[in-house]
Amino acid sequence: MANDGVDLKRRRFLTAATSVVGGVGAVYLAVPFVASMQPSARAKAAGAPVEADISKLEPGQMMTVEWRGVPVWIVRRSEATLADLPALNSQLRDPDSDNPDQQPSYCKNINRSIKPEYLIAVGICTHLGCSPSYHPEMGGELGADWKGGFFCPCHGSRFDLSGRVFQGVPAPTNLRVPPHHYLTESRVLVGLDEKGAA
To answer: Looking at the 3D structure of the chain, how many domains does it have?
Structure first.
């Protein structure tokens, strides 16, 4: 017989033990490799929602927070500014913000906001990605009919104080409104809405 002197039980045991040790070794090698594919804590923080205290913003003032590596403006608008918004509709490319990519559905209104007095918008021009400057004053160098808003110095795009783009400028769409919600009367969370959507 060919199996004379061979202990089959011992052979099965050694085969099973070797397989188990090899499997455990493969797991130990795979764990660091798979872990290296996960985003770093810094990368996770860069995309995390940002909380802002708006309690000290006076009408006409703007603050900037950074979310996902881009500036997000929070502007407190005055009653006069809000009253002027409908008068601009005929001068705007998309006064009703019909493009659904421009803002969450809960901000599809003339103010493009949850609370009328606060505009929260990504501070990047929708033309080529420059950062427009804030010009809240009426008239002045931007023309007698200027009622305040944002002017992009790169190619001349203009946006009103709801972030709506004017006609005849290079920017194709309104400024983007990020998901957000109010934690309290004076604190807003940018980057996450009440339902948890980012």
So the answer is: 2
Residue 31, domain extent: 1-38
Q: How many residues does the chain have?
A: 198
Query: What are the DSSP calls for 154-196, one per residue?
Result: TT--EEETT-PBBTTSS--SPPPPPPEEEEETTEEEET--TTS
**Residue 117, amino acid:** E
Alpha carbon distance 55, 185 (integer Å)? 8
Q: Could you confirm whether 135 is annotated as catalytic?
A: no
Res 30 pLDDT > 80 = no
Q: Say yes or no: 30 and 53 in one domain.
A: no
Residue 196 confidence class, pLDDT cut points 50, 70, 90: low
128 and 182 together in one domain: yes
Q: Choosing from 127, 135, 155, 181, which is the catalytic residue?
A: 155
> Mean per-residue pLDDT for 118-142?
89
Same domain, 87 and 133: yes
pLDDT at site 141: 75
* Residue 33 confidence (pLDDT): 65
Is 196 contained in some domain? no
